[in-house]
Amino acid sequence: MGSRRDYYRDPNAPKPNSLKPGGSALVVDEHGRVLMQRRGDSGNWSLPGGIMEIGETLEDCVVRETREETGLDIEITGLLGIYTDPEHVIEYADGEVRQQFAVVYNARVVGGEIQVSDESTEVRFLSQRELESLPVHPTVRLRLQHHQDQRHTPWLG
Question: With a threshold of 0.90, does the pTM exceed it?
Answer without folding.
Answer: yes
